[in-house]
Design goal:
elongated; 16 strands; alpha/beta
């Protein structure tokens, strides 16, 4: 099966809605020797993904918390998405599983049938009568039918729950009645869901027969918590040894807290997680996202252990995971339209299927390359003497290494991009490598400028990246705005996020001078913000002499914040809005340290590790 595209957005807990619909319902209430690693688990960062054959157990590095304890990173994550605690190792996803290696998992789709689903994703009333194909209700049913169709229903035991339950007797309403007559359902408030089709192989046709956007009824109030409890009861009654179980909640996020705050959806998802059941959160909304549902759905995705970059955007509590404080970037599967919704659901199927090749949407990998003046030196801090090419300079080696990696065929599986920082404002203010080495000209660009993305992440971008930079002609600039560089990367990646597609930053820097020239914004805080958006940051310290000037501690903190540090669960601690190094005085690199001639292998290892968690389809 092939993977599709998707894209995240934002929410919290909605405002007024009539039985979830917008019309108020009055009844609702030190310089270490650097050797190029052969694997990143050996030399650094380890987000490894838990895409194990269904029914197997995942192991983590020593010190990682057990999934049952939910006391910190180290729990199993959503298969094929991100990883357990960074630094752990798992079976490589993307392999074909079948026979005795796996049992097709149970995947119960929990479809929100509340009245707000009559609208379009941007909150308008549909005008495309009589089918109203632009309504969220029609679009959701179409996407679910596509998800569960053969042959995918031979690899996953799909089931279907509608919530709230339709009590019959005309209490719920059709899509046309809701749109054309503004008719309101009169079903009892906050009823449980109903499992209309238990999980089974070959269920695609039955699901298609059960769901019809014109006749399947919409009901009043939004009992999300009760729906999740109904799912838990179904899973408990059908539990089999070795068979994994998943909930797939498809909702527009509207009105749960106004109409049916109890039982708590968050508690219900955390309880499912304690039973080993992960919950995928698909937020199919546009208007509602802007009205406050993001934080709420982010919490559910973290509690369900399927958030993008898990556990990056999540923090453990006594009851289970929740999103980091102030998280306002969707880390659930957020869909703004029909294409996004189908892609979000297909990305889930690509992770769960048994007896098939698990696939994913090719990840985005943005190289953020330090172009500051100190890059003219060699890795051991000397002035190059190998004119005219100065191949021994860090600048030449860095560009050559990136070109080697992106031009070696990996750009068919990874969406590589290139950012240079700081930005070259033009007008001859930055200088060439030769001008810097020979001291014939001084850079005069404004201090602490933002970065520039020369090549946005895309497939087959290797040639474009090679064309965009040349060590002899691409200019280097003054000051070291590391934090601003990471902010530029964050802005682009968040703005272009696609649901189900993982995103990474690879910061290549010599670590020099950031705290003296451009301490604000803090690189540590910006990297923590990236992690909160589900974006991991690999830190490559390409230097030697600068390590002795304090860069080790700084880059250790950034690697921990980026959740890619070596032995993350042992060497990093949570503080405030994210992670930093456990020992602030340690001179042992937790990031990827690359010395003379080592950068190509180091960057290749990063790319290979990212591909270990994702076989693009």
């Amino acid at each position: 099966m092939t993977s599709r595209l998707c894209r995240p957005a934002a929410l919290l807990a909605l405002l007024a809605a009539c039985g979830d619909d917008g019309n108020r319902d009055t009844a609702a209430t030190g310089n270490q020797p650097s050797t190029a690693p052969t694997s990143l688990t050996e030399a650094t960062t380890g987000p490894t993904t838990g895409d194990l054959p269904t029914g197997t157990t995942q192991t983590t590095d020593s010190g990682a918390a057990s999934e049952a304890s939910a006391t910190g990173p180290g729990t199993t994550d959503a298969p094929g998405t991100t990883t357990d605690a960074p630094g752990t190792t798992t079976d490589v996803p993307g392999t074909t599983t079948g026979g005795d290696d796996c049992l097709p998992p149970d995947a119960l789709i929990l479809l929100d049938r509340t009245q707000s689903m009559h609208r379009t994703p941007d909150g308008q009333t549909p005008v495309d009568a009589p089918a109203y194909a632009s309504s969220k209700w029609s679009l959701a049913i179409g996407a679910i039918e596509s998800l569960t169709a053969a042959p995918q229903d031979d690899t996953v035991r799909f089931g279907l729950e509608l919530w709230p339950r339709d009590p019959g007797g005309g209490a719920c309403v059709t899509l046309a009645e809701r749109i054309e007559q503004n008719k309101t359902a009169t079903n009892p408030h906050c009823e449980a869901g109903e499992v209309v089709l238990p999980s089974a192989l070959g269920n695609g046709a039955a699901i298609a027969s059960t769901l019809d956007p014109t006749t399947t009824l919409l009901c009043n109030t939004t009992p999300t918590g009760a729906a999740l409890i109904t799912a838990g009861e179904h899973f408990a009654a059908n539990k089999e040894p070795g068979r994994e179980q998943y909930a797939i909640l498809v909702t527009d996020g509207a009105d749960w807290d106004l109409s049916c705050p109890d039982p708590s959806p968050l508690t219900a998802v955390q309880d499912l997680a304690e039973q080993g059941i992960k919950t995928f959160i698909v937020g199919f909304n546009g208007e509602e996202a802007q009205l406050g549902a993001t934080a709420y759905l982010n919490d559910l995705a973290c509690a369900g252990r399927t958030a993008k970059g898990f556990p990056g955007p999540c923090v453990p509590t006594a009851d289970g995971f929740v999103a980091v404080d102030g998280a306002n970037i969707p880390v659930y599967l957020q869909a703004d339209d029909a294409v996004d919704l189908e892609a979000a659901l297909q990305s889930v199927a690509g992770q769960l299927c048994c007896g098939c090749e698990k696939t994913c949407d090719a990840p985005e990998v943005l190289f953020a390359l330090d172009r500051t003046l100190s890059m003219h030196r060699t890795p051991d801090g000397e002035t190059p003497v190998d004119a005219p090419a100065y191949a021994s300079s860090k600048w030449s080696q860095a560009i050559g290494a990136i070109e080697q990696v992106v031009g070696g065929g990996l750009d068919t599986d990874l969406r590589f991009g290139l950012e240079l920082w700081p930005r070259d404002p033009g007008g001859g203010q930055c200088i060439t490598l030769a001008e810097r080495i020979l001291d014939t000209k001084q850079a005069t660009n404004p201090a602490c400028q933002d970065a520039e993305i020369l090549v946005p992440p895309a497939l087959a971008s290797g040639a474009a990246i090679a064309d965009a930079v040349d060590p002899l002609t691409t200019l280097i600039c003054t000051t070291t705005p590391t934090g601003t560089a990471l902010e530029t990367a964050s802005t682009w990646l968040v703005d272009h996020a696609v649901p189900g597609r993982q995103q990474y930053v690879v910061l290549v820097t010599d670590g020099a001078d950031w705290d003296l020239s451009c301490p604000d914004p803090s690189p540590l805080l910006v990297t923590q913000k990236l992690a909160a958006a589900g974006i991991r940051t690999y830190v490559v310290g390409f230097f030697g002499a600068e390590a002795q000037a304090g860069a080790v501690q700084f880059l250790n903190d950034v690697a921990c914040a980026g959740q890619t540090a070596k032995d993350f669960d042992i060497n990093c601690k949570q503080m405030g809005s994210g992670y930093q190094a456990q020992d602030p005085n340690s001179l042992v690199p937790l990031y990827l340290q690359a010395g003379n001639g080592e950068l190509p292998q180091t960057l290749t290892t990063v790319a290979d590790e990212i591909l270990q968690f994702c076989i693009p389809g």
